[in-house]
Amino acid sequence: MVKEKVKPIEHQETQSQDPSQLILYNDEVNSFDYVIETLVDVCLHDPIQAEQCTWIAHYKGKCPVKEGIHTELKPIHDEMSNRGLTVSIDK
Questions:
Q1: Do residues 48 and 3 make contact, with C-beta atoms less than 8 angstroms apart?
Q2: 29 and 66 in contact (C-beta within 8 Å)?
Q3: Which of 24, 32, 50, 74 has CA atoms 20 to 30 A from the CA of 58?
Q4: In what order do the strands lie in the sheet with 19-25?
Q5: CA distance 32 to 30
Q6: CATH no. for 17-90
Q7: How far is CA 12 from the centre of its chain?
Q8: What pTM value is reported for the model?
C-alpha cells in the first residue's frame, strides 16, 4: 500500500477561515448620526440595528458590529477606518 503525503496546514490559510468579529469602538469625535449612517452604508445594518450598536459602543466602549472570516471583514474594516471610525478585527 502506498502512503499519500499529507500537506501540512499552513497557519495563514486557517487564520483567514477562523470566525472573527468587527468591533466598533466608542470615540468622542463622531456624532451618533454619522456612526449610524456609516453602519447602514458599510455594514448593511438596518437603521434600528445601527442605532443599537451605536448606543452599545457608547455605553460599553465597544460593540461587535459584524461577524465573518477575516478576508470578508477586512474591506469593511478598511472602509469604516477611512470614514474615521475606530474599528478592529478580533477573534
A1: no
A2: no
A3: 74
A4: 62-69, 19-25, 87-90
A5: 7
A6: 3.30.1390.10
A7: 19
A8: 0.81
